[in-house]
Each structure stands twice: as C-alpha cells, then as structure tokens.
Amino acid sequence: MERILVVGATGAGKSTLARGVGERLKVPYHEMDALYFTGPDWAVNETLTDDVLRLTAEPRWIIDSIGSPEVRDLLWEKADTVLWLDYGRRVTMPRVLRRSLRRTATRERIFGGNRETWAGWLSREHPAWWSWSQHAGRRREIERRTNDPRFAPLTTLRFAQPRETAAWLASLG
Predict the structure, then answer these.
(1) Exposure string (b/e) for 59-80, b if CB count within 10 Å is 16 or more?
(2) Going from the N-terminus, what domains does the chain have, and what CATH number goes with each?
C-alpha cells in the first residue's frame, strides 16, 4: 500500500480514514476537496489535472476520493490500493448531517476558505443533498471500477460496516 484511494459516498468517513491510514503508514495524505476547491465562492482549481499528475507522480500518497471526472481515470490508473467504505445511507446521512450542522453553526472555514451556510442547505449542491442523491450512483460507479479489467491490478478492500473499517485500521498498528 503505497498509492491509496479511499472511496465511498459523501459522509462515509473517507477523510478520517485517509488521515488515519496516512499517519499509521507514514503516507502523505491529500484531501481531494481541498485540491478541487481553491478559492472563495467555491472556485474550482483550474490546474487540478496538473496538480493531481504532480501528486500521483510521487511514490507514496493517499487521496480521499473516487476523483472528480477530469482526474478519475488518472487516479485509478496510478493507485495500487482502493479502500472502499461501502456504507448504506443509514450510516452516511447522520454523519454528513452532523458534520454540516457543525460547520454551519461554527462557520468553520473549509476548502478554499469557504463556509457552509444556512442558505446553502437549500441548494442541491449542499453535502446533505449531494450525499442522498449521489449515494446509489456512486456505489454503482465504484463497483464498476473495481470490476473493470483496467483496474484489476488494484488491491481493493471493501468495508460494509464502520466496525470492519475500525478493526482493519487498528490492525495496521
């Protein structure tokens, strides 16, 4: 495990797992949302592909995302391991709701200095709406990729329950 993707639905805990694995294995962690959103008003990184090419040229890395469409194949081709948090909505929705409520209430700065807002809860782009609407499609996309012959060399670990993930992480030492 040198080049790792942590994938799953919004709210599954990808960033938390990626940070934990990165710390245990001493693998540099890169947060995809921070790479993608680089400025105020949710400005998108115009050099994302170049940035991801540079990061994935390194011998060791961990990224918490299936990858945005423009870099998805690149990430999957460069990775050697996929950690799939395949949790149902019963797990992801409470997590994403708690996180968004906290971020909104505390006005926590996130990617590119942006903040979640109360008005943002009405947008289809809000993490809660996004998680709900993209859950099934994201699962199908990850399933398709893990069965794609192009990505057969990848080691894929699929976790269906948070306790499985926690036990595996603890086994890393």
Answers:
(1) eebbbbbbbbeebbeebbebbe
(2) 3-166 (3.40.50.300)
Query: E strand or H helix at 155, and its extent?
Result: strand 155-159
pTM score > 0.90 for this model?
yes
- The confidence score (pLDDT) of residue 55 equals 96
Per-residue DSSP letter, 40? G
Q: H-helix or E-strand containing 62?
A: strand 61-63
Short-list 52, 59, 51, CA closest to 2: 59
Task: Tell how strand 43-44 and strand 61-63 pair up.
Answer: unpaired
Radius of gyration of the chain (CA): 16
With H, G, I as helix, E, B as strand and everything else as coil, classify residue 110.
strand
The pLDDT tens digits of the residues spanning 72-126 come to 999 999 999 999 999 999 999 999 999 999 999 999 999 888 899 999 999 988 9
**Sequence-distant (≥ 6) Cβ neighbours of residue 154 within 8 angstroms:** 76, 79, 80, 81, 82, 146
